[in-house]
Design a protein that fits this description.
The structure is a homodimer of 415-residue chains. With 415 residues, chain A is α+β, with helices and mostly antiparallel strands. Helices cover 37% and strands 21% of the residues of chain A. Chains A and B meet through strand 7, helix 5, strand 9, helix 6 and helix 14 of A and strand 7, helix 5, strand 9, helix 6 and helix 14 of B.
Chain lengths: 415, 415
């Protein structure tokens, strides 16, 4: 394990690794969900945690230059103090690093309105396998000179290059936010609400979903006192000008109430934080209940959410695997948790069959097998279900172009 | 010249071209500004104009699937009828095709708030050199399975693959728009206004700029009756909820008036269209005045606009080349027109020296030599000023991976 402090260190390490044929695994905080930062046999771990500075806040041009080891939540707080806004907010935002976010193209609840990490990366300084330092992208909001290598690196899961500096786009901080909690006694009604809100041409900044099992898991550790007959909840936020968002929130509440929901509005920051705490604790609570569970990250077109939820219930019944679902319903992104012990051979076999069936239905509805967690190790065996041979061949060709000796994060993405 | 009507036709043509070593130049409407669609010696032109259908408007999921030959303006009108919005609006929107927009990563006035073509492309069906058909990207708003080849194709200027189907993201149509025309008697004050509006955390949807020479050129063909002492104008639009945009427009007008501007608000669609007509006619008017002019497309960080305008004036005086400037000031994107006859050897030499000086200053301010026009033929000799050897090597490697025989649009981008 090495802890570089400068770009030059990273270049020296990459040169050494290249000359000695040692695989290198770049690592931020290790919070990723698909094993991208997990070293496989004989690898050197390149921890970026000491390269964690905010180098330049460019207030005149709404950009910020950071080192990859900076924590997402720290960056958010620092720019918010100046009235700026960095939207991508993965649930692990208080621990995960921007470098890891870039490697995985991290999303988060606000992706619905504001997009994902990819939409904010303007420039990357990176070290290539072999040790060459490259500067990619532009610091302006437009630029079309040559191929877009910046966005090729975003989401490449540390397999093509090691980012050493990252320039991100910022937005002005929205004036105000309204948070709504809507409780449904019927699961499909919650799915329907998502689809109706989107069709009503309202773009909330978040539209989060938790099913009964997810709620129960959180209630165990962080009780909100929700009624036992709640089958699903939606946590919805609209932001923008104070004058208009109350009206928008009212429209959202109307849609949910017409579908039988009980809607509550968070009136202050304390109430808002309490609602969000519930959402943020889902993942840790589920690990607490079932430490070796499997976590999937499917996405379907947003209007297919009700159909997908019905299919998940059927697959759970058919395979006998307990499923807990939550996620970013507004994006069609559902985190499906298989509550099994994946180290138990019997259970793993059953779970694998369930996963394959879930992916089959997802892809049949026009979806994808990973919305924001990446492929890493855990989804590599399934990538062929979504990406065909010729397309995969192009990706492998790109990998080979950047990393002909297969030094950088080998064994990830490609089966 | 061939006019395919289906993906299969394109695949057959590409296979034939590959087997016979015939270079292929994909072409939309040929409105590009850097020569990307211009065939060089011995090429077959692959016109996409007959593949111009809108295949599917997915209202539940806010996407639209089109063939590449569809005209941008037609697509905009068709989706607007259903209350949706496709923001990218190059000045040539009534003639240019979506396929060409994707190839060049086209921008336009609304890029300031809404981003460029890249930000709207979700899926591409494409034919590779050799004739293989590939399907890239996802139809959902998130997806991180494998490398992002979709965004590698966007802006690749027809050198990697031929798009045959394109799925685009749509937004809800904004409720209302206010248009402001601000006239300045001082050029630097106009540049300052741009920077102050951005710093005030207002994001107009457009913030267009024209200097005195550009205004004079348009006045000749489409008189608006602007006073002779107007040195620059800003055409500014804010959109959103009716209640809030009047207030925002008021703030923008205040900023401009404090810098000595005369501000006029367009009260209705007719007035708005008249103002825009003036902006849209700049480029044709300049060609009318000087048919063999050279057009540049620089971008600087937005707060460097005043400094860049001062430098352009100096370069014009130093080199004796008449410059006319207009463009998307909010993005820092200035279309610099060199009013020379580029076929005259003497004039070209002077102009080339001016261009190199303009690019040097632009890059020194942290800018780029092309914001939305691409590299094509005209900027290929200068690409080395911005992109270094190692980075260019990666791009050439990607070109070689997709197109090992250099069949597709050879002679473009790379010098």
């Amino acid at each position: 394990m090495v802890w570089p402090e400068t770009t030059k260190h990273v270049a020296q390490i990459m040169k050494y690794a290249d000359e000695n044929g040692i695989p290198v695994v770049p690592r931020g905080a290790g919070t990723g969900m698909s094993g991208g930062a997990v070293p496989l046999g004989g690898s050197m771990v390149l921890s970026m945690e000491k390269m964690n500075r905010l180098l330049e806040l460019d207030t005149g041009n709404l950009t910020v230059l950071v080192e990859p080891g900076i924590i997402n939540g720290r960056l958010q707080r620092e720019v918010e103090e100046h009235g700026f806004f960095y939207p991508p907010d993965p649930a692990s935002m208080n621990f995960c690093t921007i470098g890891g976010n870039v490697a995985e193209n991290a999303g988060g609840p606000r992706a619905l309105k504001y997009g994902v990490t990819r939409d904010y990366v303007m420039q990357i300084e990176a070290v290539l396998p072999g040790g060459d330092i490259v500067n990619l992208g532009v610091r302006t909001h437009k630029g079309v000179v040559g191929y877009d290598i910046v966005r090729l690196l975003v989401g490449s899961e540390g397999t093509l290059a090691v980012a050493t500096k990252i320039r991100l786009k910022l937005l002005p901080l929205p004036e105000d936010v309204v948070t709504l909690l809507c409780l449904f006694t019927d699961l499909e009604a919650a799915g329907m609400a998502v689809s109706r809100i989107v069709s009503a041409k309202i773009v909330p900044r978040t539209l989060e979903f938790m099913d009964r099992e997810a709620i129960k898991a959180v209630e165990k550790f962080n009780p909100l006192g929700l009624a036992d007959d709640v089958e699903a909840l939606l946590l919805i936020e609209v932001d923008g000008h104070a004058e208009t968002i109350k009206k928008e929130a009212g429209k959202v509440a109307d849609i949910c109430m017409k579908l039988g929901a009980d809607a509550r509005m968070a009136e202050d920051d304390a109430a808002r934080n309490r609602l969000w705490e519930c959402r943020r604790r889902v993942s840790p609570s589920l690990y607490h209940l079932c430490p070796r569970k499997m976590s999937e990250d499917i996405v379907v077109p947003r209007d297919m959410i009700p159909q997908m939820l019905t299919s998940l219930r059927r697959i759970s019944e058919d395979t006998g695997v307990r499923l807990v679902n939550y996620g970013h319903a507004g994006d069609g992104n559902i985190h499906v948790n298989l509550m099994v012990d994946r180290t138990d051979e019997e259970e793993y076999k059953k779970a694998d069959a369930a996963v394959r069936e879930i992916f089959k239905v997802t892809l049949g509805l026009g979806g994808t097998i990973s919305g924001e967690h990446g492929v890493g190790i855990t989804k590599a065996p399934y990538i062929g279900m979504e990406v065909k041979q010729r397309e995969l061949g192009l990706m492998k060709g790109i990998k080979n172009l950047f990393d002909p000796k297969n030094i950088l994060n080998p064994g990830k993405i490609f089966p």
